[in-house]
Amino acid sequence: MNTAYTPVAKGLHWLMAVLILGLLALGLYMSDLPLSPQKLQLYSWHKWAGVTAFLLVWLRLAWRVTHRPPALPDTLSPLMRLAAHAGHAALYGLMLVIPLSGWLMSSAKGFQTVWFGVWPIPDLIGKDKALGDILKEAHGALNWLLMLTLAGHVGAALWHHFVLKDDTLRRMR
Ligand code: HEM
Question: Given ligand 1 and candidates 18, 31, 111, which is best to mutate, with the most ligand atoms within 8 Å of its CB?
Fold first, then answer.
C-alpha cells in the first residue's frame, strides 16, 4: 500500500495549481478590458497557457492511472470518502472540459489558437458566431464551478491539516 505520492504526482499537482490560478486570474482580468493590442496579447497568452494545462492534465491522468495514490485516512466516514472522491473526479473533469470549451470557443469565433505563436492548433469546429457566444458562456460558467470546487478542495485540505491534524496536506509536499 502506497503511503506517499510520487515526486512526479506532486510536481504535476503544484505546477497545475499555479497554472490554473494564473489562468483564472488572467481570464477574469482580460475579458473586461477594452479592445486593444494589449488585450489581444493577453488573450494569446491565456490560450497558450490553457492549451499547456490541457496537455498536462492528460499527462497527469496517465500518471494517475499507472501510479496508485496513497489511501485516504482511515478516520474518514464513508460519506466524507465519497465527497473526497467526487471532488477529485470533478476537478479532473473540469480540468479537461474547461480548456476544451476555450478551444472550441476560439474555433467557433474564428480565432485559431497558435500555441506559443509557433504551432497552429487545428480548429475543432467551423466559424459559427451564435455557437461561439454559447461556448463563451459555458467557458465562464464552468470556471465558476471550478472556483467553487477549488474552494472546497482547499478548505478540505486545511480542515485535514488544522482540525483533524492528519498528514493529508503534508504528503502532497
Ligand atoms: C484550465 C484552463 C483554463 C482556465 C482555468 C480558463 C479560465 C478562464 C476564465 C476565468 C475566463 C473569464 C471568463 C469570464 O469572464 O466569464 C476565461 C476567458 C477566456 N478563455 Fe479561458 N481558461 C482556460 C483555458 C482556455 C483555453 C485552452 C482557451 C483557448 C484555446 C481559452 C480561451 C479563452 C478566451 C478566448 C476567453 C475570453 C472570452 C471572451 O471574453 O470573449 N481558455 N478563461
Answer: 31
